Amino acid sequence: MSRSLFRHLLPLIAGTVVSIVLLYFVLKGDEVDKKFDELALGGENTAVVGQVNKLKVHCHDFNDADECFRGYADSGKGNDVVLWLGNSQLHVINQMLAGEELSSVLLHKKLYLDNKYLLTFSQPNANLQEHYLLFESLSNSLPVSTLILPVVFDDLRDTGVRDGLRDAFDNEVKNSLQSTKIGLQLIVAQADTDAAGNDMAALDDTVQEQSEKYLNSLLADYWEVWDQRPTLRGDIFGNLYFFRNWLFGITPSSIRRVIPGRYALNMQAMKATLDSAQEQGVQVLLYIVPLRNDVAIPYDLRQYEKFKSEVEAAAHGDHVKFIDAGDLVPAEFWGTKNSTTIGSEQELDFMHFQASGHILLTDKIFNELKILWELN
């Protein structure tokens, strides 16, 4: 059946797919812990937890942040902290072999010899609003002296803050966020949400709110699936994601264009991060991430070049150093990943490289940090 015919039947098909997928995952309970955020990684990519001497030096969000804080405390050093934020490029190795390490681990070891302590936080498809929030929170609780801030064109199509970062909204961080327009928007957006991300502001202290809490607790006690509904929702949308990609012919090579509103919010967040770093006396290494370039890149070239120019222009002041690492990793260090659509073969991976790429990125970042520190 042709795609055009499927588009006409889309409402009926979508309803059917949702029903079937929901039933599938209710019955198949052993797979409900699958992470929707990692959906596009595929079997060729391995997500790794970065540890050095059994101390965790690489975390994702506030679900595991205490482990990184504990590792820093247990290290016995009161070193200045170098904070590296990023997306899955930092915690994934393509076609990983035994003994290979992430750039976050390799760089941690190099900086430790220079009496500095690197902590890395990365989330899949992390946007710059999330980086802004994390920086404000972590710099408030750790002696951050340097921030390594990657900018990913594709991730500027995302917006908002995921649940794993909600704990960052404490009173001191809110005070910092309130000084910027984008910070105020983040506070308002996250002020009243439940565990599934639903807006709860209108229900505060109402009979409906109390009733829903009671019923949710009751159902969770008697029906295990009810307590797993946020994960189930992710599984449903994950399957719809594959179906959507097949229906509209979307692949990793499909052109990604700017979503203007989201792009503007993320660029505001980047500038707010740089301004906050300057106020706190934190030095910043701002970089465009490595991108596979042995084939046509999946971006509108005019928009991508404009984006890079805007990022470089924002890197003003002695406390910021900008580099474009887009061409850093050669073609032979990139790989493939599982299909993100229905019935297709392996696809090119434009974001995750092999361990050799992590070594190149480590050396590049280390050398650029040396230059930044010598200038200041």
How would you characterize the overall build of this protein?
The chain has 376 residues and is α/β, with parallel strands linked by helices. It has a single domain (3-160, 224-375), classed as Rossmann fold, CATH 3.40.50. The chain contains 13 helices and 12 strands. It has helices at 3-8, 10-27, 65-74, 103-113, 128-141, 171-177, 181-190, 207-222, 224-227, 229-248, 260-280, 301-314, 355-375, and strands at residues 45-47, 51-52, 55-56, 58-59, 80-86, 92-94, 116-122, 144-151, 283-288, 320-324, 334-337, 347-353. The strands form 4 sheets. Strands 4-7-5-8-9-10 form a 6-stranded parallel sheet, with helices on both faces. A two-stranded antiparallel ribbon has the order 1-6. Strands 2-3 form a two-stranded antiparallel ribbon. Strand 2 (51-52) and strand 3 (55-56) form a beta hairpin. The longest helix has 21 residues, at 260-280. The radius of gyration is 22 Å and the shape is globular. The model is unreliable at 23-36, 194-205, 234-238 and 241-248 (pLDDT under 50).
Q: First CA to last CA: what distance?
A: 64 Å
How many whole angstroms does the radius of gyration measure? Answer: 22 Å
Secondary-structure-based class equals: alpha/beta
Q: Mean pLDDT, rounded to whole units?
A: 80
Q: In order across it, which strands form the biggest sheet?
A: 4-7-5-8-9-10
CATH superfamily: SGNH hydrolase
By CATH, the architecture is named 3-Layer(aba) Sandwich
Main sheet specs: 6 strands, parallel
Order of helices and strands: HHEEEEHEEHEHEHHHHHHEHEEEH
Count of discrete structural domains: 1
Unreliable segments (pLDDT under 50, ≥5 consecutive)? 23-36, 194-205, 234-238, 241-248
Overall 3D geometry? globular
CATH class: Alpha Beta
Helix fraction bin: 40-55%
Helix count from the secondary structure assignment: 13
Number of strands: 12
The third-level CATH topology is Rossmann fold
Proportion of beta-strand residues: 5-15%
